[in-house]
Amino acid sequence: MNIFKLVFTISFFISSISLAQNVGRWRAGSGNKLEGKVYTLSCFISGPDDEWSYDEKTEVLKKLDEAHQWLVSQAAKSGVALAFEGGNFGLKKDIKLEQIERGTASGNEKTDLVSVVLKQIGYKNPLSYYEWVKTNTKCRNTQVIIFTKGKGNGYAMPSSTEMNKELYFVEGAILYEKYLDGQELVPSSIAHEILHIYGAWDLYKTFAQTQERENRARKLFPNSVMLRTSYDSNELEVDEVTAWLIGWNDTPKDWYEWFRPSRTAK
């Protein structure tokens, strides 16, 4: 059996929640608890010298739909009602940016890309987009998923109470057509980043997470989507710590906090 079918290496992930975790309270933006109806705006961007094909975009949207369906099924196991709807920009013609951020798992990536893309689309600022969602849909939460031509490490852009509301209130994630080693984006990576938007922590070693915590997570939650990913999403699950962080569990255990990432991780 192909080893990549069993475990898709965790090195493609970035600890994106840590970009906001030490600043104010998390789950303070357009993505509150991951429940009810959620509006996903998917956007396709590319640089001056590359461009998505229409077939590539439709294939990525299928992966997004699979990620959505997996999250709905995981929510149901926790007794949480969840549904997704949404729209897209750039399907017929790419949103062009002069410079494309390439995620490198450093923790220093740009966090204002949602604002940049929404302005390209025609919104005055993220709050005006959020008002459109509230006026035109019945969704409680919204998120912007930016699909980027080329290679990079995907990462999420969550908000906190101490971040500029006008610029950062609408949260999202950037995902790349391919990972840095050339492998194709998989649906479980999309689900992983969506969970970050709602407060989830990485459970594998990163610049903000320790090897000790990863080792413990491997024993407790070997199939957690926040620890590893897979070509087969059905091999994975939302672990109990993540369920608490995203609002699916209101009765946390004291030891959950032990897994909190830190910028000073060794």
Q: What topology emerges from the helices and strands here?
A:
Elements: H1 3-6, H2 18-21, E1 36-46, H3 54-77, E2 82-89, E3 95-96, H4 113-121, H5 126-136, E4 141-151, E5 155-157, H6 165-168, E6 172-178, H7 187-197, H8 211-220, H9 240-245
Parallel strand pairs: 1-2, 1-3, 1-4, 4-6
Antiparallel strand pairs: 5-6
Task: Write up what this structure looks like.
By secondary structure, the chain is α/β, with parallel strands linked by helices. The chain is 31% helix and 16% strand. It has 9 helices and 6 strands. Strands 1, 2, 3, 4, 5 and 6 form a 6-stranded mixed sheet that branches. The longest helix has 24 residues, at 54-77.
What labels describe this entry?
disordered N terminus, single chain, 266 residues, globular
Uncertain ranges:
1-24
Query: How many individual helices?
Result: 9
As a percent range, the share of strand residues is: 15-25%
Mean pLDDT: 88
N-end to C-end Cα span: 35 Å
In this structure, how is the largest beta sheet organized?
6 strands, mixed
Counting DSSP E segments of at least 2 residues, the number of strands comes to 6
* Series of H and E elements: HHEHEEHHEEHEHHH
Rg of Cα set: 17 Å
- Given the helix and strand composition, which structural class is it? alpha/beta
Helix content: 25-40%
**What is the overall silhouette?**
globular
Condensed summary:
With 266 residues, the protein is α/β, with parallel strands linked by helices. It is 31% helix and 16% strand. Strands 1, 2, 3, 4, 5 and 6 form a six-stranded mixed sheet that branches.
